[in-house]
Amino acid sequence: MSQPEVTVYEVGPRDGLQAEATPVPLEAKLRYIELLGQAGLRAIEATSLVRPDAIPQLADADELLSRLSRRPGVRYPVLVPNERGLERAVTADVDAICLFTAATESYAQHNIRMSVAESLAAFAPVAAEARRRGWWIRGYVSAAFGCPYEGEVDAGAVVRVAEALLALGVDELAISDTVGVAAPADVGRVMTALAGAGIVVDTLAFHFHDTRGTGLANVLAAMERGARTFDAAAGGTGGSPYAPGAAGNLATEDLVYLLDRQGVRTDVSLDAVLAASRFISEQLGKEPSSKVGRAGPWP
Ligand code: MG
After folding, report:
1. Measured in angstroms, how far is the CA atom of residue 179 from the centroid of ligand 1?
2. Exposed, middle or buried, 275 (CB in 10 Å: 0-12/13-18/19+)?
3. What local confidence, expressed as pLDDT, does residue 241 receive?
4. Which of 116, 132, 250, 280 has the smallest C-beta neighbourhood within 10 Å, fewest atoms?
């Protein structure tokens, strides 16, 4: 099967659910992931192997992974914060992991309780072992366009963290607008800096939030510069605690609708994504935050 023109990287089960207060039963999470697989998504971030008490919503990660039915050709990355998480990943027989750090010191300290340098040092043995096992590795650079503590973020800081993650052997960088503040000009600024450092666009994924309504515009801006992988969460689950009441992750259905109408092949079924979106929204007891989830597809 040939590669789609754009890869939609689904983050709903991990990044989406971890920010939702309503507990979702394990069975429903497994169903959500299954529906996402049925929709044709080829990368579905499944859960996070952080300490169970750190993110109660994902405290069932080990059991979820033991019961997950993996579809052929689908990658199910799992967030691994440290060597303990790596041991759990080995037990769970995963073959794709994510490492999570930030472009700013304050965001790293608040979110993972390490400095950026400490996080990179903690990841080194994790990444080395993952590479030895032939696993795929994604590195998150969060707060890449704005920081809730430091405000504007210098593109040079994004480049330095991106380079450090690549030096650890990550396969993909997720350049993330954690607070949902970026506009297309910011995307251009950061992509120019990354390209200037010799980081090839094929290694980049972009994680945009739709907090301020700029998510899709940012996708198009990044595509114009060659980006081909975008994160989204079916149902628009998740949300930044720094933007109360506002939408969080870009919704998969909004992204797929846009790409379909633009004639960009994703191999993802919009109708099937909407089914997954409705399912998880019912579980959470709320309406999907997406535009397409509310308005429906067309024609
Ligand atoms: Mg997010």
Report:
1. 8
2. middle
3. 57
4. 132
